[in-house]
Design a protein that fits this description.
Radius of gyration: 37 Å
Order of helices and strands: HHHHEEHHHHEEHH
Helix content: 55-70%
Shape: elongated
Largest sheet: 4 strands, antiparallel
Number of strands: 4
Distance between the termini: 30 Å
Structural class: alpha+beta
Length: about 475
């Protein structure tokens, strides 16, 4: 018996190298080799450091924003769920991989039974006992055609995908906190601008009211001055509401309240962000976690084809145990009490109404779907980076033009106010200058916010936001989680 078991084990070992998983071929990237060029784009520059390797502390200069990002990385619930998903998929991989090994269990049992006299062959009541202790293997499948290993590979690639999903969640969180913070600061600057403008409007209204009392200004001038005051009050209520809502949005992202010891915020006009190198589109394939996650899902789908193919072939499972059996406890481990059983089972698929063929077809279709999703993730990344590069160049030009526009409106306002006070121009010209200046200043803050958020989004699109420092390279593990035997 021992020789046959040894022979069977050797045969299983030789055949265990068989795998029906198709050779994996990475799909070609369905994008151009270079980012777009044209008037909206700045000339391409060589990158000394990839954006994905630039730590978020290195990219964001504002200490208050750095503290908020650190708080979010500790407390945000979405990031916590993503980390727990990694543990969950690691456990699923552990469950699937355990099928590659025989499950060995020990069992001890005992029983005593009384047989009444009328049921006994001797005509007398009898008491019988039986005790046993066994060590056995139950229903262990010999993975001759790689079905179990294919399922294990599928679970492993799903685990890798969950690691990339966690990384993607962190990158998105860093960008979301930065954009929420910048929006909060912009709305606070707009609120302060509105408060100052309202004070100026109220002072102008007071002077116009006095002029009206002495007959210098008309009732129309007074009414026009009042419209400016009331419009500014509308804007004040609007920005007061937006600042409060911005704080609520930021609190949700942080997963806790905004720290009371937050450093003083830098103005939007300060140098808040580092310059980003764009690099080449091919770098996205190694840097973007959503692309890497899509590729791992593709590999998982590829492995499922191997499992579906292996289902067409016979499967062999073994059940065996050995131990000792005795009618009394004292003789349980004495000589001559040994017992064993060996029950191999083979399952050969003959007729299943096309179920196995349909399963294989389904696996192949799922792979094609994952190929399309992988290619779409590359195209989406390419489009996001291209949009960011176009925004960088055009926002620089737009902001400079808007600053010049604000300066021109300030000159217009000063001249209009002087001419109105000395009676050369009407109040209508002065009010128009006031409103134009207020509108231009609002637009400058809004444009600066749009420029900063576009840079943050470009940083995210290039895969940045994973490392804390540029000198640190936090890599996602590409090794299987350790096998826990007990």
């Amino acid at each position: 018996m021992s020789k046959s078991l040894l022979s069977l084990a050797i045969t299983a070992t030789v055949l265990s190298g068989c795998s029906l998983i198709p050779d994996y071929q990475q799909p070609q990237a369905p994008v151009a080799a270079q980012y777009p060029q044209g008037p909206a784009y700045s000339p391409a520059e060589a990158a000394n450091q990839a954006a994905a390797e630039q730590g978020w502390r290195q990219f964001f200069h504002d200490p208050a924003l750095q503290q908020l990002i650190q708080t979010a990385l500790v407390n945000n619930r979405d990031l916590r769920v993503a980390a727990l998903n990694i543990d969950a998929y690691a456990a699923q991989y552990q469950i699937q991989r355990a099928d590659l090994f025989p499950a060995i269990s020990a069992n001890g049992s005992g029983s005593r039974q009384r047989t009444p006299a009328r049921m006994s062959q001797t005509g007398e009541a009898a008491i019988s006992s039986q005790y046993s202790a066994t060590l056995g293997v139950s229903a262990y499948e010999l993975d001759l055609f790689g079905r179990v290993r294919s399922l294990s590979e599928q679970a492993l690639q799903t685990y890798f995908s969950s690691e990339e999903a966690r990384r993607s969640t962190q990158i998105s969180l860093v960008a979301s906190v930065a954009n929420a913070y910048l929006t909060w600061q912009a709305d606070k600057e707009l609120l302060k601008l509105t408060q100052d403008t309202l004070a100026a409007y109220e002072e102008s209204y007071r002077l116009t009211s006095r002029s009206n009392e002495v007959g210098v200004a008309s009732a129309l001038d007074l009414s026009q001055a009042r419209t400016s005051v009331e419009n500014a009050r509308v804007q004040l209520a609007r920005y007061t509401r937006q600042v409060a809502q911005d704080e609520n949005s930021l609190t949700l992202l942080l997963g806790t309240s905004i720290p009371a010891n937050l450093p003083s915020a830098q103005p939007l006009s300060a140098d808040l962000l580092s310059e980003l190198p764009a690099g080449l589109p091919s770098e996205l394939l190694q840097r973007r976690p959503d692309i890497l996650a899509a590729e791992h899902n593709l590999k998982a789908a590829n492995a499922s084809i191997g499992a579906a193919r292996a289902a067409f072939f016979p499967s062999i499972s073994l059940t065996a145990n050995a131990g000792t059996l005795s009618p009394d406890m004292g003789g349980l481990f004495k000589g001559g009490s040994g017992t064993w059983s060996f029950a191999p089972q083979i399952n050969i698929p003959i007729f299943n109404a096309g179920s196995l063929r349909a399963s294989l077809d389904y696996s192949k279709i799922q792979k094609d779907i994952n190929v399309a999703q992988y290619e779409k993730s590359i195209q989406t990344a390419f489009q996001e980076v291209s949009d960011g590069l176009a925004a960088r160049q055009t926002y620089n030009q737009q902001l400079q033009a808007q600053r010049d526009f604000v300066n021109a409106n300030q000159d217009y306002y000063r001249l209009a106010e002087r001419r109105y006070r000395i009676g050369v121009d009407s109040n209508l010209t002065f009010l128009d200058a006031q409103r134009s200046l207020f509108s231009a200043q609002q637009a400058l803050i809004t444009d600066r916010l749009a420029q900063l958020t576009s840079e943050v989004n470009l940083y995210k699109a290039l895969g940045g936001g994973w490392n804390e420092q540029g000198s640190q390279k936090a890599e996602v593990s590409k090794e299987a989680p350790p096998l826990k035997l007990f």
